[in-house]
Write a structure and sequence with these properties.
Elements lengths: L1 E3 L6 H12 L7 H27 L6 E10 L3 E10 L2 E7 L5 E3 L6 E5 L5 E5 L1 H18 L6 E6 L7 E2 L7 E2 L3 H10 L7 H14 L8 H4 L22 E3 L2 E3 L6 E2 L3 H12 L2 E3 H8 L4 H10 L4 E2 L6 E3 L2 H14 L1
Parallel strand pairs: 1-2, 4-8, 5-9, 8-10
Antiparallel strand pairs: 2-3, 3-4, 5-6, 6-7, 11-12, 12-13, 14-16, 15-16
The protein binds zinc ion (ZN).
Length: 330
C-alpha cells in the first residue's frame, strides 16, 4: 500500500481566513469571501475524513492512493482522491454538503434542504465525475495507456438522507468506500505491478500543486480596499507601531519581534506574488525603508533587480514555507 499526497488543512483555507481578517466587514463582497471559506473548509474536512478511512483500514491488495491531484490533459482537472489498482483507476469525489439531498430528474443540479427549510442548488456531482473521467481517459490515452476507470461520489455525513438518487451515479458513505474498492479488487486485473508503478510515477510527475493566490484578483477586489497595517496577534488590532524591538500594540501593549511576518504573508496570499520596498511600507504602514529592507531580506525568498528596483517574488512553495514559519512562531 502507498498513500501519496496526504491531505491536510489547505493553504487556500488559510488564505481565505486571512482575507476575512483583512476585508472590512461592511464590504459588499464580505459575505462571498465568508461563503468561499465555508465551502473550502467543508471540502478540506470531507477530504480529511476520506484520508482517515484510507489510513485506518487495510486494503489487502496492491494499490496506490492519491489525494488532491491536479492534472491536465485536454483540459485541467482536479481529482479529490484517485485509487489505483491492477483492476483500474477509481475516481472518488467528496461532497460535503449538509442537509437532505435530492436529485431532480432531468436536471444537472441537486438541491439540498436544511432543517430550517432553506433550499439551495448545487451542480450535480455526476457532471464533475463525468468530466474528470473524460479528462483522465485523455490523460491515459496521451501516454498510450489503457486503464478502466470507475467513479463514485462520497458524502461524508453518515446521517444524510437522499431522495430520488440517479441510477448512473454511485453514492458512498466513507465506510462504504472500502467495500466498494474491495469489490473492484475482485474483478479480473488488467494491469501488472510494473504498469501500476509506471502509472503511479507518471501521475506524480504530471501533478502540479494548485496555486490559488493572490486571492483579491479572483474576487475582483482592489488592494486599496483591504485593511493595512501589522496585526496584533493578541488583540487583533491592525496598525501595530514600529518600535526598536519590533512592533508594539498601543491598545493591549503587546510587543512582538516578528508580527510583520504574518502581514507579509497576507500580502503574498491576498495582493500579489511580487513585493517591493514601497509596497511593503504601504501595506505594513511602515515609514522606514531600512526596516522594510531588513524585513524583506530576511524572508529568504528570491529577489530581482538591484537597489531601488529590487523586488521579491514568491511561488506557492515559498508561500507554504513562510506559512510554516509564521505558524511555528505562534
Ligand atoms: Zn494588541
Amino acid at each position: 500500500m502507498l498513500i501519496v499526497k496526504k491531505k491536510t488543512r489547505s493553504i487556500k483555507q488559510i488564505g481565505l481566513e486571512r482575507f476575512v481578517q483583512r476585508l472590512p466587514s461592511h464590504h459588499s463582497r464580505y459575505s462571498s469571501i465568508e461563503n468561499a471559506l465555508r465551502t473550502t473548509r467543508a471540502g478540506d474536512n470531507g477530504e480529511k475524513i476520506l484520508a482517515g478511512v484510507f489510513s485506518r483500514f487495510q486494503i489487502p491488495f496492491q494499490h496506490y492512493v492519491f489525494h488532491d491531484l491536479n492534472l491536465s490533459s485536454t483540459g485541467k482537472f482536479q481529482i479529490d482522491t484517485l485509487f489505483l489498482c491492477r483492476q483500474g483507476a477509481v475516481i472518488l469525489e467528496m461532497k460535503n454538503i449538509a442537509g437532505s439531498i435530492s436529485f431532480p430528474t432531468g436536471q444537472n443540479q441537486i438541491t439540498r434542504t436544511l432543517k430550517n427549510g432553506q433550499v439551495d442548488s448545487f451542480e450535480c456531482p455526476s457532471i464533475q465525475l463525468e468530466r474528470n473521467e473524460m479528462l483522465l481517459e485523455d490523460w491515459f490515452y496521451a501516454r498510450n495507456m489503457s486503464v478502466p476507470i470507475y467513479k463514485a461520489v462520497v458524502f461524508p455525513r453518515t446521517q444524510q438522507h437522499f431522495e430520488s438518487e440517479r441510477s448512473n451515479l454511485k453514492i458512498l458513505f466513507p465506510l462504504e468506500v472500502l467495500t466498494y474498492l474491495r469489490n473492484i479488487g475482485d474483478l479480473s486485473p488488467t494491469l501488472d505491478d510494473g504498469q501500476l508503478r509506471e502509472i503511479s510515477a507518471a501521475l506524480m510527475e504530471s501533478h502540479r500543486d494548485y496555486n490559488p493566490f493572490p486571492l483579491i484578483s479572483s474576487f475582483n477586489i482592489s488592494s486599496s480596499e483591504l485593511k493595512t497595517g501589522v496585526q496584533c496577534e493578541k488583540c487583533g488590532l491592525f496598525g501595530m507601531e514600529s518600535i526598536h524591538k519590533g512592533w508594539g500594540c498601543h491598545r493591549c501593549k503587546y510587543v512582538s519581534a516578528d508580527a510583520h511576518l504574518q502581514s507579509v504573508l497576507d500580502y503574498f496570499m491576498l495582493v500579489d506574488n511580487v513585493i517591493t520596498n514601497r509596497d511593503c511600507r504601504l501595506f505594513l504602514r511602515l515609514d522606514s525603508p531600512q526596516k522594510a529592507n531588513r524585513i524583506l531580506k530576511r524572508l529568504q525568498v528570491p529577489s530581482f533587480g538591484d537597489r531601488k528596483g529590487r523586488h521579491y517574488a514568491v511561488d506557492l512553495s515559498d508561500i507554504e514555507l513562510l506559512e510554516n514559519k509564521v505558524r511555528r512562531d505562534d
